[in-house]
Amino acid sequence: MEPRPDDLVLSSGTVENPPIDELAGAAAAGGYAGVTLWPSDYHPGRRHGEPPGQIRAKLEDRGLYVQDVDAHIAWVGPNDPGPPYMEEIPERETFELAEAVGARGVNVLLHGLGPADLDASAEVFAGVCDRAAEHGLRAHLEFSRNRVYGRDLPEAAEIARATGRPNAGLMLDVWHVHFGRGSFADLEKVDGERITGVQLSDVPHQPPENLGYATRYARLAPGEGALDLVGFLSALRAGGCRAPLSLEVFDAPRAESRGTAGFARDLAEATRRLQNQAGQD
Length: 281
Known about the structure:
Helix content: 25-40%
Low-confidence stretches: none
CATH class: Alpha Beta
Largest sheet: 8 strands, parallel, barrel
CATH architecture: Alpha-Beta Barrel
Oligomer: single chain
CATH topology: TIM Barrel
CATH superfamily: Divalent-metal-dependent TIM barrel enzymes
Number of domains: 1
Structural class: alpha/beta
Number of helices: 10
Shape: globular
Distance between the termini: 19 Å
């Protein structure tokens, strides 16, 4: 099953990483084409871990594919304390899980204490790409203002290009674009085909007092906030990006009140309204 640009993908983190049967049921009922899995929750031996082949079968029985697993973290620069850097599982386990569930790729974050430059970042990311390729995976480099290098879309594109690896792609999270150094106008500066993953949400009209908290717990559904997402979707597709749209909307209170299926359905309906307005239905 090959992903299409108008496909919607449900991130497991958006619905608080429920058991795989619940996730698959909610995604299928909401009309999603695929899911993103957090390996720290779905790897065997973890909270909702099952044999990967069983996870894949349950998803495929519902007509769903795995777009990516989110995320692997790699260190750039000096003073590497050694993994784990956040809540991620080891790289080998991440890639093995991704391959076994049939994922298209792995989301990659480059962390460090700085300083780091293009060459150092590209060298580390190239190594990740090579190891991901051994499992048939694409590596999506996610940028944000907190990276030591690759803090916006043009810088991240420089890293991916400098690797020279055919499986080096970019993950564009609209939240990080808005609260970072760039803007949606940066889409004109990069090859849209290099953008292999898109994470969609919306942002509050007023800047949050605590951006870190809002990033993890207070995102808005697409179309409810300040972003011009219709313009974004139009520019994204005009630039050649054909990645599906992953819904990454961290809003735990709403997810709890609406339930897994209800929240997933709300997000899908909101996004389809935007797609219709952008002429992408």
